[in-house]
Amino acid sequence: MTWMLTGGAGYIGAHVLRALSAAGMDVVVLDDLSTGVAAKVPADVPHIRASVLDRETVRTALVDHEVEGVIHLAAKKAVEESVREPLFYYHENVEGFRRLLGAMDDAGVRRLVFSSSAAVYGMPDVDRVSEGVLPYPINPYGQTKLAGEWLAAAAQRALGIDCVLLRYFNVAGAGAPDLGDPSVTNLIPLALGAMEAGEPPVIFGDDYGTPDGTCIRDYIHVADLADAHVTAAQRVTGSGSAAVYNVSRGVGSSVREVLDVAREVTGIDLPARVAPRRVGDPPRLVGAADAIATDLGWQARHDLHDMVASAWEARRAAG
Ligand code: WQD
Q1: Mean of the pLDDT values across residues 183-212?
Q2: How far is 160 from 72, CA to CA, in rounded Å?
Q3: What's residue 9's pLDDT?
Q4: What is the radius of gyration, based on Cα positions, of the chain?
Q5: Which helix (H) or strand (E) holds 60?
Q6: Which residue's CA is the closest to the ligand 1 atom numbered 18?
Q7: Among the atoms of ligand 1, which is closest to the Cα of residue 185?
Q8: Is the pLDDT of residue 238 over 90?
Q9: What confidence tier does 1 reach under pLDDT thresholds 50, 70, 90?
Q10: How far apart are CA 37 and CA 14, in angstroms?
Q11: Whose CA is nearest to atom 4 of ligand 1?
Q12: Per-residue pLDDT tens over the stretch 54-93
């Protein structure tokens, strides 16, 4: 059975691609390389260099490769940019997904795994947020992911495209030294980069109402996340459902705790610099991980130390 993986040349996509191949599944990658890297797609995997917005190319690829299901990761994901460029984000993430669903419908493809985000929750005032909590995104990026979830659910009802929607929490680490996160927007890459440069890592606010005053997040290893996609793809079998799951560990780590692990892993003992709060940061965002464990039998295997250590190793390998 062949699956189409959109965004397969990106940081998360390259991990999902390897996990699918390791599970013996045939894959065709669709990636326009706007942020992805061609070298992350092995030579023996077909790579169509196109955007999901190009409905006709997508439809042709689905038919030509006899695709049975789509794992849709291709999207814009920078929160700050989405605040500055909301029209661009809605076009890429919502209109792009709408056209992809149209191409799937044309080609008779009825299975979908959709990349959503914990950003749909906004600022939930709960210890662990479960899927039943009413989503209330606070930036255009999160809004486009929630709109995607609604669109997928509507397409399930109207077109019979069965789907599993995965809400990623804070993805980190590397599954192999050549698959590190090249972004410079998230805490772990930023902290490791600063420490490597001999500069203090930055804490955005230490006056939150949390035990050590810094924000708490639920970090998930990208290799675990990739395995969740394989499990989801194997389970979306035409049961007539649109299921939504957190992909999280249910474990909260504060910024200070992450920096402690980074000091331990790198051996670089630099004190942090406390900067003002970053606008729009929820004090605590930890995901209940029970539903995906119960329904799909998936749970994370890696802890925070694994994430930071593998991110550091990949960083060193990349020079
Ligand atoms: C984590 C914590 C920062 C950098 C974002 C998106 C989300 C998802 C993942 C999508 C926060 C603090 C950070 C630093 C710090 N995106 N921090 N010093 O904001 O939880 O989630 O990325 O695909 O939608 O919102 O992740 O890694 O930026 O921040 O103190 O140098 O670390 O304030 O509390 P975030 P993050």
Answers
A1: 96
A2: 17
A3: 98
A4: 19
A5: helix 55-64
A6: 203
A7: 28
A8: no
A9: confident
A10: 9
A11: 187
A12: 999 999 999 999 999 999 999 999 999 999 999 999 999 9
Q: Tell the residue nearest (CA) to atom 17 of ligand 1.
A: 187
Does residue 274 have its Cβ closer than 6 Å to ligand 1? no
Does residue 77 have its Cβ closer than 6 Å to ligand 1?
A: yes
Q: Is 258 in the pocket of ligand 1 (CB under 6 A)?
A: no
User: Is residue 141 annotated as a catalytic residue, yes or no?
Assistant: yes
Asked if residues 230 and 25 have their Cβ atoms less than 8 Å apart, the reply is yes
CA distance 17 to 162: 21
Banded pLDDT at 129 (limits 50, 70, 90): very high
The closest-lying atom of ligand 1 relative to the alpha carbon of residue 141 is 24
119 CB-near residues (< 8 Å, 6+ apart): 79, 137, 139, 141, 142, 145
Strand order in the sheet with 67-72: 47-48, 26-30, 2-6, 67-72, 111-117, 162-168, 242-247
The reported pLDDT for the residue numbered 180 is 95
> Which residues are bridge partners to 220 per DSSP?
171
Mean of all residue pLDDT scores within the chain: 97
Is 58 a pocket residue for ligand 1 (Cβ < 6 Å)?
Answer: no
The structural domains of the chain, ordered by start, are: 2-171+219-247 (3.40.50.720), 173-217+250-288+302-317 (3.90.25.10)
Q: One of 89, 141, 168, 245 is an active-site residue; which one?
A: 141
Does the pTM of the predicted model rise above 0.85? Answer: yes
**Residue 190 in contact with ligand 1 by CB distance below 6 A:** yes
